[in-house]
Amino acid sequence: MKLDCKIKIQDRQRTNGSSTLKAAKGVVGLAKSNNDEWVLVVRLFKDTNATQYKLRDNVQALLHRCINNGMATIQIKMPPHDVQLCEANVESLKTLLSSVRLASTGSNLPSSIRSISINAVEKLQRPALQLIVNQAIDYPTLKGFPSTLEKLIVNAAHLRTPVDRRIFTLKNLHTLDLSDNNITELPSGIQMNHLHTLIIRSNQLKSFPNDIKCPTLKHLDLSQNQLEKFDVALLNISTLERLNLSSNKIKCIPRIILRVLPQLQVFNVASNLVRVIPNSIASGGTRLHTFHYDDNPLATEKMITCKRFNTTLLEIALRAVIKYRIPYDFKTIPRTLCLLLDEYETCAHCASACFIRFGEIIVPKQLSAIGVTVHVTAANQSFAVPVQERYCSIKCFNYGLKRAGMIQM
Ligand SMILES: [Zn+2]
């Protein structure tokens, strides 16, 4: 049997348990030696030769606490090496370890375990990890993509909708760049568990699929597309750290953006149609450190945009649900109330929830005070951005007006 994974071989005597060596791609397997005994064969693709370890009476320990994460260590007695395996297929790794255990005691291995050829292992080529297609003629239309790819860049290859679904079945991809094509829509049902970077810059996208499942996605670039609104589907990718939506036609940033994207550090909405930004971006206490806001139609005047304080039973009930953390879902209360509860904004003074009854002002703010670097066009020397602040009550509203210098104390 053989298993593709990442491997690190550590000499226990030399490294004293710690090593700066990195795990490298390779193959580990079981082979029968000339005297009919099982040996462990380890080959790193960066090396030409494979290393063989006798197994009978020569295994000190099998460390398998993280086996369900595809990690395990085989400790060999002589030489005193730790063969550390990671990013392995879990089932294959379990089979390998149970076979190593049997071989170490001299027991027979199941008939399903076949000896590998050491010569064949030494001839194995490093699997293709990266593919760059810069023109349509290089696109592997007929032969398809190697399933081992971790990084795929398809630029200026005239890709259109529907996009080749084979791209989204590459389970090992961590970076996918489809910039400079003519894609208007992504397919539904995308699930890529290792993807951390998705770049679809300079296409014709009008929306983003709401059923995309990329649980490790950190960097998403949808700049230079045709997005007319901030797609709510983006709010489901809670792992995002960098989001680039520049050069679209977005008018409004959702108020809850930093509540549902708590990891967001760099947010780019330059060259859109955004007039004001929600107070959550300007209120601090988040991971956001860089905000690109160049080339948007700025609201430069301080102004009152809403003043509705006649409290209703609905407002009181909704505020109580948030205050007392009462659980709710579509089955227990109407959908419209659920949507209201999901998208409330907090009072800029006392942090109470505001729903329908509130006071709202637009006031230019410097975000540098909360540690956010703002990029604005040169014409806006002040680096202030127009922030939409909401206040839950007349008392808080008056406080906000005073702070903004809109009424005298
Ligand atoms: Zn308040």
From TrEMBL:
Protein name per UniProt: PIF1/LRR1 pleckstrin homology domain-containing protein
InterPro entries: Leu-rich_rpt (IPR001611), Leu-rich_rpt_typical-subtyp (IPR003591), LRR_dom_sf (IPR032675), LRR_domain-containing (IPR050216), PIF1/LRR1_PH (IPR057437)
Domain (PIF1/LRR1 pleckstrin homology): residue spans on this chain: 1-112
GO cellular component: cytoplasm
Native source species: Rotaria socialis
Record SUPFAM superfamilies: L domain-like (SSF52058)
Keywords: Leucine-rich repeat, Nucleus, Repeat
Transmembrane intervals: none
Zinc as UniProt keyword: no
